[in-house]
User: Which sequence fits this backbone?
C-alpha cells in the first residue's frame, strides 16, 4: 500500500498515548493479540492445507482473571463439512474426549466450558493433538506455536512464575498486571453537519483538487475519479474526502483538513481510512478504515480516528489476526487499542 507523505501533520496518537501498548504477534499457527487495557486474545488455527477451524482464548489482566475459550468453524468449507445449528461438536485432546459443545448459531462462535478450556490450555503447553468431530467430519487445530504464545501472554500480563501463569507456573508473589483504564479522549460536537460536494468541472473543485494534489502522493487518476466531499468541522476548518486507492478488494480515501476558505491544507491523514461520518450520539466527525494485507494470511486491519477540535486523533485499532481461510478473519476485529470518547 502506498503511504501518504504527511504535510503539517499533527501526530494522530500524540494526545492519546497509552501507558500500555497493544500488539499483535504470530507464532506459527497461533496469533497473540493484546490491547492497551491488558486483555490478551490467543487464536489458534489449522495447519496449512487443512480445513479452516479456530479456537480463541481470551484473558483480561488481573490476578484472578479467568480464561474464556471459544471455537469457530469456517462456513465456507465443503458442503459435507458444514456444521448444523443444534449439532454437537465433540472435542478431543490426545485421543481423550473432553465432551461436546452444541453449535448454537452460524453467526456466533461456540463457547467452551471452563473444564474444556483448562484441559486444552494444559495440553497446549506441550505437543498435543486437538480434534473436533461432528457427523463424519474431523477438523484439527494445530498445536504449533501455542506454548510460545502462552509464554508471551504471561510475560505481557506480568504472570511469569506466579500461580496465575498459563505456562511456567511458580510461587512468586509479585503483583501481576492490573486491568488498565481506557484512555479518555475528548472530541468536539460539530453543530453544522451539512456536507458539500464539489463536482468535477467546477472552478472550486479544480482549486481544491490542486491543493490536494500538491499535498498527497496518490496517483492523479485515482484522486480525480470522483467528486470531492467536504465535511464541516470546528475552528473554521473542513475535512476534504477524495478517493485515493482503488483495488479489487479495498479502497482507501484521501482525507485532508483545510481551512473553510479552501485556501490551504492544514493536516493530511494517513491513507488508512475509507469512510467518514458524524456519530449520532456524539455529533463528532469520525473516520474509519480497514485494509487487507497481501499474501496468503489475508489479515485485515482496522482504524478509527475522531476530530478533537484541533486534529484527528486515533480512537481505535484492531486486527483480524492471520485469518487462515476465514474471510474477514475468524474472530472479526481483535483490538490492539481501545478508548473512551467524551464530548467536550
Assistant:
Amino acid at each position: 500500500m502506498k503511504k501518504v507523505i504527511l504535510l503539517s501533520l499533527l501526530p494522530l496518537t500524540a494526545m492519546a498515548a497509552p501507558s500500555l501498548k497493544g500488539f499483535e504477534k504470530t507464532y506459527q499457527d497461533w496469533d497473540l493479540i493484546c490491547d492497551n487495557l491488558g486483555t490478551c486474545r490467543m487464536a489458534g488455527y489449522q495447519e496449512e492445507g487443512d480445513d479452516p477451524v479456530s479456537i480463541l482464548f481470551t484473558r483480561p489482566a488481573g490476578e484472578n482473571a479467568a480464561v474464556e475459550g471459544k471455537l469457530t468453524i469456517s462456513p465456507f468449507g465443503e458442503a459435507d463439512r458444514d456444521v448444523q445449528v443444534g449439532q454437537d461438536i465433540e472435542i478431543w485432546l490426545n485421543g481423550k474426549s473432553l465432551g461436546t459443545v452444541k453449535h448454537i448459531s452460524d453467526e456466533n462462535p461456540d463457547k467452551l466450558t471452563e473444564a474444556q478450556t483448562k484441559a486444552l490450555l494444559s495440553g497446549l503447553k506441550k505437543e498435543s493433538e486437538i480434534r473436533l468431530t461432528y457427523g463424519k467430519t474431523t477438523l484439527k487445530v494445530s498445536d504449533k506455536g501455542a506454548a510460545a504464545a502462552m509464554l508471551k501472554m504471561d510475560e505481557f500480563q506480568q504472570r511469569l512464575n506466579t500461580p496465575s501463569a498459563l505456562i511456567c507456573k511458580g510461587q512468586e508473589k509479585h503483583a501481576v498486571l492490573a486491568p488498565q483504564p481506557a484512555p479518555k479522549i475528548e472530541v468536539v460536537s460539530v453543530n453544522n453537519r451539512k456536507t458539500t460536494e464539489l463536482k468535477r468541472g467546477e472552478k472550486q473543485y479544480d482549486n481544491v483538487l490542486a491543493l490536494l494534489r500538491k499535498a498527497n502522493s496518490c496517483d492523479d487518476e485515482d484522486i480525480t475519479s470522483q467528486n470531492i466531499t467536504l465535511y464541516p468541522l470546528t475552528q473554521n476548518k473542513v475535512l476534504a474526502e477524495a478517493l485515493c486507492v482503488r483495488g479489487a478488494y479495498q479502497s482507501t480515501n484521501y482525507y485532508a483538513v483545510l481551512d473553510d476558505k479552501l485556501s490551504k491544507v492544514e493536516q493530511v491523514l494517513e491513507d488508512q481510512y475509507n469512510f467518514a461520518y458524524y456519530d449520532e450520539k456524539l455529533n463528532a466527525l469520525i473516520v474509519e478504515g480497514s485494509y487487507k494485507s497481501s499474501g496468503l494470511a489475508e489479515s485485515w486491519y482496522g482504524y478509527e480516528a475522531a476530530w478533537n477540535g484541533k486534529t484527528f486523533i486515533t480512537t481505535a485499532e484492531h486486527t483480524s489476526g492471520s485469518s487462515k481461510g476465514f474471510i474477514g478473519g475468524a474472530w472479526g476485529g481483535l483490538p490492539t487499542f481501545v478508548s473512551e470518547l467524551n464530548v467536550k
Summary: The chain has two domains: 23-156, 184-343.
